[in-house]
Fold these 2 entries.
Entry 1:
Amino acid sequence: MAASSPPRAGELLAEARRAFREEFGAEPELAVSAPGRVNLIGEHTDYNQGLVLPMALELVTVLVGSPRADGLVSLLTTSEDADEPRRLQFPLPTAQRSLEPGTPRWANYVKGVIQHYPDSGSVAARAQVCQQAEHSFAGVPCGIMDQLIALLGQEGHALLIDCRSLETSLVPLSEPKLAVLITNSNVRHSLGSSEYPLRRRQCEEVARALGKESLREVQLEELEAGRELVSKEGFRRARHVVGEIRRTAQAAAALCRGDYRAFGRLMVESHHSLRDDYEVSCPELDQLVEAALSAPGVYGSRMTGGGFGGCTVTLLEASFTSQVMQHIQEQYSGTATFYLSQAADGAKVLHW
Ligand code: GLA
C-alpha cells in the first residue's frame, strides 16, 4: 500500500509560473513556499500559552509574484478547492482605507496578511500578523503554533514552541528507522468551527476563576484544589490542557534521548485526554488511532490539529510503514488517505 504523493515544491512552482505567465504575460520576479505542518503533541495548548511540538511537512503552498507600480494587488489562485472568482484585484490598504474580508473566501487570509503586515519586524512579529489575519479575516481564533512552525521549521527537526515566551528550540527528528505517518480520516464535522472558540473561552474562564493569567500558570494540584470554583466541564477541559503541557515537555525530552516508546505512550495519553476530557475527537479519529495501535511497529498514535475530523499522526518504525497503512485501511470504516513526510524546512524563497 502506498502513501499519496501530492505535488512537491518543484512541480507547484512550474505550475505557478505557467499560470502567472498566462495571466500577466511576463515571468514572475519572486517565488516563495510555505509548508504544511503536523503537530506531534501539544494539542489545544497554544492559545493557553502552553507548549507545542509540531514539525513542518514537505507538502507546501507556492506563491509567485512581481511588484507593480499602480498601487493595486492582483491575486490569482490555481487551487481547485477555491471558490469563485479565482482572480481578483483591489487597491493596497492605506491609513484611510482598510481591506475587509468578504468573497471569494480563499482570498481572505491573504488580504488579512496584507492588511496587517508590518514594515519591519522580527519572525515573531510576522507570525503574529499571520495569526491576526486568521482571527480577523478568516474568522478562526487560533493560537500561534501554525504560523511559527511555518516560519521556523527546519529539515530533520521538530520544533518545541513555548507559546508564552515565543521561545523555540529545535528537536532532532531524522532517525532513518523512524517514520511519521499522517492519516487523513477524510471527514470534517461542521461542529469543529463552533466548538474551537467555545473551548478557548472555557479555558480562559477557568484560568480567570483560579486567578491566573492563563492555564499555563496552573499546576494540576492547583486545579484539583480549585475544583469547586469551576464547572465540571471546565474542570475537564483544563485538566486536558494542564496535563498536555506537561506531556509535551516530557515528549520533547523523550525525543531528544531517542526514547520513542516513551514518546509513543505520551501520544496515546494525549489522544485519550483529547477524546475524554477535551472532547474534540470523533468516532472516525478514534477508530484510526485504535487501528494504528493494533498494528506492528507502532510507537504511538493520536488525533492531531483542532479535531472533529481531519488527521491522526502515528509514530512508527519505518520498515513497517506499508503494513501499518494496510492494517489501518482494513480496520477503518471510511476511506483513509496517507501522507509520509520527513520533517522539512519552514517558509523560504525559491530559486529557478
Ligand atoms: C488549530 C489551530 C492551532 C491549534 C490547534 C489545536 O489547528 O490553528 O492554533 O490551536 O488547532 O492544537
Note: The pocket of alpha-D-galactopyranose is lined by residues 39, 43-44, 46-47, 142-143, 145-146, 305-306 (CB under 6 Å).
Entry 2:
Amino acid sequence: MNRNKFDFFYRLGLKYPLFQGGMAWVSDSSLAAAVSNAGGLGIIAAGTAPVDYVRDQIRKTKQLTDKPFGVNIMLLNECTEQIANMVCEEGVKVVTTGAGSPGKYIARWKESGITVVPVVPSVAMARRMEKEGADALIAEGGEAGGHVGELTTMALVPQVVDAVSIPVIAAGGIGDGRGIAAALMLGASGVQLGTRFVVSKECTVHQNYKNRVLKAKDTDSVVTGRPTGHSVRVLKNKLTRKFLELERNCANLEEYEALGLGALRKAVLEGDIDYGSVMAGQIAGLIKEEKSCQEIIEELFSQAANCLREAQDLVEMGKNNG
Ligand code: TUI
C-alpha cells in the first residue's frame, strides 16, 4: 500500500523525489555522488563509453557516497549487453535507460534486485515498458538536452500519467522550483534535471562548457540530427550551423554523422565549444550561477514548496471570497 505519491522515492532511500539526468561524459562519479549525498538520486551515465569506464565510475562513486545511486544505460552503446550484466555484478540499485527499448534486459535486472526506470518519449512506449516490468518511468519532453523525442514535457507528462499506474518522473525543461511544482501538478511523482547540474561545482565538465551554458539565452538551443533519426538538442555554435546547412542541402548521412562523431567529448573534455557538441536543454537560459549540488537541490525544493503554498492560497481564496 502506498504511503503517498512519493513512496517510490522513500523506498529508494532518497530525501527528495529527484533524479539527476544521466548525461554522457558529464554524469561521472563526482556529480553522481554529490547529488546522492545531497538527498537526490545521482546517476552515472554510460553514454557511449566502454564497460570498464562505467565499472570504474561505479566503484569511484561507492567510495564517495554510502547513499544509493543509479546508472543510465544509453541503448545505442555498442557495449550495452556487457554493461547490462556488469551493473548486476556491481550491485547497482537503480538503472535508467535512454534512446531505445530496454525490454530484453528488464527481467535480468529485476532478478538482481535493480529498480528499472526507462526514459519514454511517448504513451505507446510508456505502456510497453509498464507491461514489460518497469518500476517507474521518466517521461522526457523535447525541451531536454541531448537525444530527444517530439513531444513537449507539458503535453507528454499528463498523457503518460493517465496511461500507466507506475510512478512517472517528469524530465525536460525543468530548471528550478517552479518547474518542479508544475511537474507535480501535471501528475508526476518526481523530476529529473540534467542541465541544471552541468553548472554545479561538482560537475567536472570543462569550464568553457559551463560558461557557455551560463551565457545561454532562451533561444540558444537547436535540434540537429532529425534526418538521421537521432534528434539531439544542443547549444548553437559553428558545429550546429554546419549541421543545419547539411540538413538543408540534404547531404548524405555519412558525411553528416562523421561530423558529429566524438563531438560531445570534444566539448566536455577539451572545452571546444565552437566545434564540439554542447548538449543542453531549453532551460539553459534560466541558469545564472554555479553552485554546489547541495545548494542547488535545497534551493529547488524550497522554491517548489513556496510555489505549492501559493497555489494553496488560491484554493483558500476561492473558499473565503465566494
Ligand atoms: O537518451 C537520452 N538523451 C541522450 S542519449 C545521448 S548520447 C547520443 N548521442 C548522439 C546520438 C544519440 C545518442 C545524448 N542524450 N534521453 C532519453 C531519451 N530516450 N530521449 C528519448 C528517448 C527514447 C527514444 C526512443 C526512448 C525510447 C525510444 O524508443 C524507440 C523505440 O521504439 O525503440
Note: The pocket of TUI is lined by residues 24, 47, 74, 76, 98-101, 119, 121, 125, 140, 146-149, 230, 232, 279 (CB under 6 Å).
